[in-house]
């Protein structure tokens, strides 16, 4: 059953905090709980059909992952990122993803790109349909598949932990006119250089992709949100 905020009602008595986390997490990633929106813990508990304690535990976990902010005497706000947040996340991405792409080329990836190409074609299909959520899912799959090619479990785990922030931070930016197809073209360029085994060009393609993505995020936030140097 779905409530007004699109939260799936929690009905199982066991592991309520985990179930509340999954419901809230899913609603944040889907955009049902919008960036910057303010919520009341008691109301969330009522809509989930459980007590406040497991909801509070779930919110603390979401806060630890940077997805919500707990504001004393105000409530819970879905994280509204500052300009500093955006720069930091993309700086981390560049450091890690450039290293990742170099590792993939060193290992010889030309014959191992079928899954990455399939993810790219799925993304193109979602772009053609104008399916925002489908495109986000395919985008996440593309980057996860790229991580798998590097065969570095620790690096993959670090990037996967960052993936939710990337997802929420970049979701609105993808609504900009033509951005779907721009992202697909940027990903296609990365694939092309990986096929060629050209580490330098692949690295450059990743850096350009991240710079364009960061600029799109900043532009979207400046147009639709109050973005500051740091509000924390």
UniProtKB/TrEMBL annotation:
Keywords: DNA-binding, Transcription, Transcription regulation. InterPro entries: GntR_C, TF_FadR/GntR_C, Tscrpt_reg_HTH_GntR, WH-like_DNA-bd_sf, WH_DNA-bd_sf. Pfam families: FCD, GntR. One of its GO terms (molecular function) is DNA-binding transcription factor activity. SMART domains: FCD, HTH_GNTR. Coiled coil: none annotated. Residues 14-81 form the HTH gntR-type domain. PANTHER family: GLUCONATE OPERON TRANSCRIPTIONAL REPRESSOR, TRANSCRIPTIONAL REGULATOR, GNTR FAMILY. This is Transcriptional regulator. It comes from Desulfomonile tiedjei (strain ATCC 49306 / DSM 6799 / DCB-1).
């Amino acid at each position: 059953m779905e409530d007004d905020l699109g939260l799936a009602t929690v009905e199982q008595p066991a592991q309520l905090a985990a179930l509340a986390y999954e419901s809230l997490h899913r609603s944040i990633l889907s955009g049902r709980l919008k960036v910057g929106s303010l919520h009341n813990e008691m109301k969330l508990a009522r809509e989930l059909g459980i007590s406040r304690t497991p909801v509070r535990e779930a919110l603390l976990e979401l806060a630890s992952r940077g997805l919500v902010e707990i504001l004393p005497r105000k409530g819970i706000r879905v994280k509204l990122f500052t300009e500093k947040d955006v720069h930091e996340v993309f700086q981390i991405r560049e450091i890690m993803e450039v290293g990742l792409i170099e590792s993939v080329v060193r290992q010889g990836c030309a014959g191992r790109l079928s899954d990455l190409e399939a993810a790219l074609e799925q993304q193109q299909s979602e772009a053609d349909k104008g399916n925002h959520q489908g495109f986000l899912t395919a985008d996440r799959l593309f980057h996860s598949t790229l991580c798998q090619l590097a065969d570095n479990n620790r690096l993959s785990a670090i990037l996967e932990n960052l993936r939710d922030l990337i997802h929420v931070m970049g979701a609105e930016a993808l609504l900009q006119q033509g951005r779907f197809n721009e992202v697909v073209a940027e990903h296609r360029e990365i694939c092309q250089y990986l096929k060629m085994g050209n580490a330098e060009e692949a690295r450059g393609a990743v850096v350009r992709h991240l710079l364009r993505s960061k600029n799109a995020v900043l532009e979207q936030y400046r147009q639709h949100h109050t973005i500051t140097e740091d509000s924390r």
